[in-house]
Design goal:
Length: about 160
């Protein structure tokens, strides 16, 4: 498979938040077919949804030679190993990893939607994503991550 630039969003709001994100990115970098290109700052943000502890969020730019579903399986395995439970939406999580962009691909399936359907409305994703992938284009809008970030700030 041809290499694709992939933008991942990582978050944690319980336990050793920073350590969990750094451990996950190190594990991602160790997988054959994946190469960590850049990691954003780790930034504390307020959660979306019900009241819960603040998150540490980061973005990772990854060069990927794997199919999207295989990358998803790796991300979900890392979440599971960190103690994630998928029984309730909007719950505090030790580790949450989302595939935000996978090159210029659009993927719509039961298990995976790329681009991530809500990333354009989430400052906690766009702010850190702009650090590592400012010129990465959203295949739906044609806008760069930087432009999406600026658009979101206009509406705040």
């Amino acid at each position: 498979m041809k290499k694709a630039q992939v933008l991942l969003s990582l978050g944690s709001n319980i336990g050793e938040r920073q350590r969990q994100i750094l451990h996950a990115t190190a594990r991602i970098a160790s997988v054959e077919g994946l190469e960590l290109q850049a990691l954003s700052d780790l930034v504390e943000t307020e959660p979306v949804g019900p009241r819960q502890p603040p998150y540490i969020n980061a973005a990772a730019l990854v060069s990927c030679q794997l199919p999207p579903r295989q990358l998803l399986a790796i991300c979900q395995q890392l979440e599971l190993e960190a103690g994630r439970k998928r029984d309730v939406r909007w719950r505090p999580e030790r580790l949450d990893i989302d595939i935000v962009l996978f090159g210029q691909r659009r993927i719509y399936s039961v298990s995976l939607v790329v681009p991530h359907p809500r990333f354009r409305q989430r400052a906690f994703v766009l702010d850190v994503a702009a650090q590592v992938a400012a010129e990465f284009r959203d295949p739906v809008t044609g806008k760069t991550v930087r432009e999406l970030c600026e658009d979101l700030r206009k509406w705040k």
